Amino acid sequence: MSRINDVGGMTGFAAIVEEPDEPPFHDDWEAHVFALNGALIRRGIYNLDEFRDAQERLPVGEYLAASYYERWFAAIRTLLAEKGVVAAADLALPGDGDPHA
Length: 101
Hints:
Blueprint: H1 28-42, H2 48-56, H3 60-65, H4 68-82
Helix pairs in contact: 1-4, 2-4
């Protein structure tokens, strides 16, 4: 089954623009999400395949509207709720449903 992240051969997407000397993180929160994901994987809360799958299961509109690390953060929140580590209600963010709110 094809998912939204499987865009190979699809048309209609804008060209990828590379930033010269692009930093690994554009904001501190992105570095925190990167570190949090690594810590949760090392602790065995979930594995890399589960993390990737959680990103790929995001609703199409959310996936396309989100930045790279916004998708990571959404996947982490999804997995923490699914694994029963944290209640989904405790993970709600202001403006949930709109990653740019």
